[in-house]
Design a protein that fits this description.
The protein is α/β, with parallel strands linked by helices. The chain folds into two domains: 3-32 and 177-332, Response regulator (Rossmann fold, 3-Layer(aba) Sandwich); 36-172, 3-Layer(aba) Sandwich (Rossmann fold), CATH 3.40.50.2300. The chain has ten helices and twelve strands. It has a five-stranded parallel beta sheet with strand order 2-1-3-4-5, sandwiched between helices. A five-stranded parallel beta sheet has the order 7-6-8-9-11, with helices on both faces. It has a two-stranded parallel ribbon with strand order 10-12. The longest helix has 16 residues, at 177-192. The N and C termini lie far apart (48 Å).
């Protein structure tokens, strides 16, 4: 048995990762480790049953999503609203749900907790059956608390756990960032680095909602005998000067792998600024983020080859719509 195979065995071979991490030509682990009501286990008290938003002919639901990030209209670039409406139109054309059509209200949360607060208050005021979130831990935590406090069921992709575990009325549809960060440590050691002492770093958005993910990653790496040389938080929206300094720091430390949990505009800037300095590490990230959601990643060729735990990662090569999105992103976020 060679050294790399032995390391894989010591790390459990990252058997939970193998065959499923995209970009590393694999993807998300199928054995969910949800916690509390975030994943349907260990649930606390439930919110009251209600038929609010349900009539004999229709079901009204609400979704908040980042139609804009840092002033960039990604809803227009990625067609989030159009895709949402197309999906439910298709469901309705096939008879809806138990004979009821689904009416969807989409609210822009601006990838910002304050904007999300207003977006969710608008959804709650619309007397919906339930509300759902897409991306962004801060926005999802904000909306989950507002909705469930108003006795409205709420579901989202798995993000942070703090403030959501055992929250009555809340459900996560995927693994959380916290649990995926533990898994990422196993994956990096078992599948990515050649040397178990290769310098590895984590860069996350600066918010309490990402602190537990960092703690989980660094603790698991330490348990597995690996080497995390930096674990840093940066401005959520991306500050060029701060990110440039981060690139210099990581390059000087000889970092080979960067695990990032970042807003797409920040990950775009990070990869671009680092590449300008000749620093091109292997990037890895969790699922439920747009940073590496397509191949090639939209707007940033420097992230080609990024490895992601995305459950689905679409190859957009030769896709006309994807080409248009790439061009639109380049036009709105031009390279210096």
């Amino acid at each position: 048995m060679d050294e790399r195979a032995a390391r894989r065995g010591a790390a459990g071979g990252c058997a939970r990762c193998r065959g499923r991490v995209h970009g590393g030509r694999r993807g998300q682990h199928g054995g969910w480790r949800f916690r509390g009501s975030g994943g349907g286990a260990g649930r606390g008290a439930e919110i009251e049953d209600s038929t609010t938003g349900v009539t004999d002919s229709a079901i009204k639901i609400g979704i908040h999503a980042p139609e804009t990030i840092g002033g960039i209209d990604i809803g227009d670039l990625l067609g989030l609203g159009d895709l949402t409406q197309l999906y439910w139109d298709t469901v309705n054309e096939k008879g809806g749900i138990h004979g009821r059509s689904v009416e969807v209200t989409l609210a822009d949360d601006g990838y910002d907790a304050n904007a999300a607060q207003q977006a969710c208050r608008d959804l709650i005021a619309d007397d919906l059956f339930f509300a759902s979130g897409t991306f962004g831990a801060d926005q999802i935590i904000t909306c989950a608390n507002l909705a469930t406090d108003a006795q409205m069921p709420y579901m989202s992709l798995g993000v942070a756990e703090d403030g959501l575990v055992d929250k009555p009325g809340y459900r996560a549809m995927t693994m959380t960032y916290d649990a995926m960060s533990e898994l990422m440590a196993e994956y990096v050691l078992g599948e990515v680095v050649e040397d178990p002492q290769a310098p590895v770093a984590m860069v996350r958005y600066n918010s309490p909602s990402s602190e537990v993910a960092q703690d989980a990653f660094t603790a698991t790496m330490d348990e597995l005998g690996s080497n995390v040389v930096a674990a840093d938080a940066v401005d959520k929206q991306g500050n060029a000067n701060e990110l440039t300094a981060e690139c210099v720091k990581l390059a000087n430390l000889g970092v080979e792998v960067v695990f990032m949990i970042l807003v797409p505009t920040a990950s775009t800037q990070l990869a671009r600024l680092c590449a300008e300095q000749g620093f091109t590490p292997q990037y890895v990230t969790v699922s439920n983020t747009l940073s590496c959601a397509s191949e090639p990643p939209i707007g940033v060729p420097e992230l080609v080859g990024c490895r992601s735990f995305s459950a689905v990662r679409v190859d957009t090569t030769g896709n006309t719509l994807a080409d248009e999105a790439q061009q639109a992103w380049a036009d709105r976020l031009p390279r210096p």
